Amino acid sequence: MRRRLIGGEGARAARRRRWQSLREKRRRGIFLLPSLLTTANLFSGFLAVLLTANGRYADAAVAILAAILLDILDGKVARLTNTTTQFGLEFDSLADVVSFCVAPAFLLYAWALSQLGRAAWLAAFLFVICGALRLARFNVYAGLLDRRFFVGLPTPAAAGLAAASVLFLADEEIARWGLLAISAATYVVAVLMVSTFRYWSFKEVDFSRRHRLGILLLVVLGVLIVATYHQLFLFALFGLYVLSGPARRLWVRKPESVPSGDTERKEGQ
């Protein structure tokens, strides 16, 4: 037992030293291009809130999807140009709180949840708080976990499912049972964001490598499907990704834990 405790303390100390090293290596300062993309992401989220307040739900959903695209470009540009900074990490998370937590939660509330009782609009608040906790946990564990996976459902994917649901059902008259299903799904997605399910990050995908002709044909087919049935495709895409975390846990059948954050939290946040 004593040997096990000593080993656990050694592992925590090693994680603490690695975390401090990562913090020291991140350069301070502001790089213009990634920061501009993050600002555009934040503007898209703010625009989605304004459009929702004016009852333009489909346009608000498109603004959230635009924010997701800008968030992806932000990270790609920062890594390709080697301009990753601690400021950029924090600024990106603050923008994500607006674009992927507040904006989709407000959209879901105005579009569907406001027609139900208190338990339904509490789902919108839970979406916001779980998304914020997910982003805070991501900052704490940045660089400490397997980069092939995200721990918990990423907030852009959760926001994407909300936006895709609005687009998919924009022209439909939603019955009460449908509103209840949307409320229950909001609770489930919120909990998945703070869960320990592993989700593929796709950071290992290298588009610069040579691929077979079949891959190109699949990409072209995907583009054609998006152009023809974009509402259904987006809903199915985000829905399958949301379900992939629990499905992977059932497939692997192996407990996957997150390192204890007590030490990192004291020195980080």
Description of the structure:
The structure is a single chain. The longest helix has 26 residues, at 86-111. Helix 2 (32-53) runs antiparallel to helix 3 (57-80). The chain has one domain: Four Helix Bundle (Hemerythrin (Met), subunit A). The model is unreliable at 1-5 and 260-269 (pLDDT under 50). With 269 residues, the protein is an all-alpha fold. The two termini are 32 Å apart. Helix content is 73%, strand content 2%.
Which structural class best describes the helix and strand composition?
Answer: mainly alpha
Shape: globular
Name the CATH class. Mainly Alpha
Number of strands: 2
Break the fold down into its secondary structure elements and pairings.
Layout: H1 2-25, H2 32-53, H3 57-80, H4 86-111, H5 118-140, E1 149-151, H6 155-168, H7 176-193, E2 198-200, H8 213-228, H9 230-252, H10 262-267
Antiparallel strand pairs: 1-2
Keywords:
269 residues, two-stranded antiparallel sheet, disordered N terminus, Four Helix Bundle (Hemerythrin (Met), subunit A), 2% strand, mainly alpha, single chain, 73% helix, disordered C terminus, globular
